[in-house]
Fold this protein.
Amino acid sequence: MPLMSNVSPFMSVPAPRKNQYRVGQWAVFREEVIELDGGECVRCGRSRDDGVVLQVHHKKYLKDRAPWEYPLALCETLCKGCHGQEHGVVRPDSGWDYVGEDDLGDLSGKCDRCGTDIRYVYFVQHPKWEPLSVGTVCCDDLTGTKIATERRKFDERLGRFLKSTRWQQVGQFYSIKQKQIAIRVVPVVGGYRIHMNSTTGRTIYPDLDSAKARVFNFIESGEADDFFGSKA
Ligand SMILES: [Zn+2]
Ligand SMILES: [Zn+2]
Ligand SMILES: [Zn+2]
């Protein structure tokens, strides 16, 4: 059994970004497609000036590709009416895939499916329909999963961990014991570094919360068990 190395690659992985996408990306992409099509429906030629709603249609479905990552050649502008004819009128209630999410910070969003005001927006897509931005309940419904609910629960637990009174400030650093692992978050030049048991992480996190969040993810994801388990 080798002695614990001073620096471990495991903690060099950056903390996962909370938001996998920004809703804004889709809006920007959509406007780009509409502009390229001259601001009008490619079927009937009507524009927003004619009072129609313009949407972007994906001519082909690419699995595991976010709607705004499609090649422009696979996208076209359709008015809502022409688009409805393209897809049929009844939106499917199953077969949707979760693509990502965003936290708007307040209830400024609206669920595309039920119209509820939402703060947490989930992007879902379907082989035969347009991508939708929906709330937690509708995301779970459409994907037939608990992804959205689980994500919210995870965030709540993370929030409690960040604020936990179990964190103790000892001199310059912060310490906590979680699942038998002694954790310290230590200020260094440019941010904070994580120590777990006698192992020092390589990554420097810009602020205290992102370092603490990385600790939480590391333990929750089971990486900690794999890492320290193998050394036991
Ligand atoms: Zn379409
Ligand atoms: Zn049209
Ligand atoms: Zn909804």
Q: What stands out?
A: The radius of gyration is 23 Å.
